[in-house]
Design goal:
By secondary structure, the protein is an all-alpha fold. Helices cover 63% and strands 0% of the residues.
Length: 107
């Protein structure tokens, strides 16, 4: 029983580490739900529930790593089309001309 409780606490902490951080001190509804689910696990299905929770933690870690690698190796993914064109031109040694903005005069 003690090892199951220790394992449950460890998994609970791992899940909380994978959840997005919040600035407020009150636990989020997701954190509260995870806490009640782990605290109220039935003893006959405890091992299967803990195994499922461990799989969730591994999945969340893999998704975080995947997102980090995707952002690192595809830096142009989050920029708009105009900046992509400008950066592509600079990559091949060209600078785009400054766009002419027509001044508005008195109408």
């Amino acid at each position: 029983m003690a090892s199951t409780a220790t394992r449950a606490r460890s998994i609970y902490r791992s899940i909380l580490r994978e959840l997005p951080q919040r600035s407020c001190t009150e636990p989020s509804p997701v954190q509260q739900r995870v806490r009640t689910a782990i605290a109220a696990h039935s003893h006959d299905h405890a091992e299967s529930q803990l195994a499922q929770a461990e799989q969730y933690v591994q999945y969340a870690k893999a998704q975080r790593t995947y997102t980090t690698l995707l952002e690192r190796y595809n830096p142009g993914m989050s920029i708009d089309e105009e900046d992509k064109v400008r950066l592509t031109a600079r990559r091949v040694g060209m600078d785009l001309p400054d766009e002419f903005e027509k001044e508005k005069g008195p109408s």
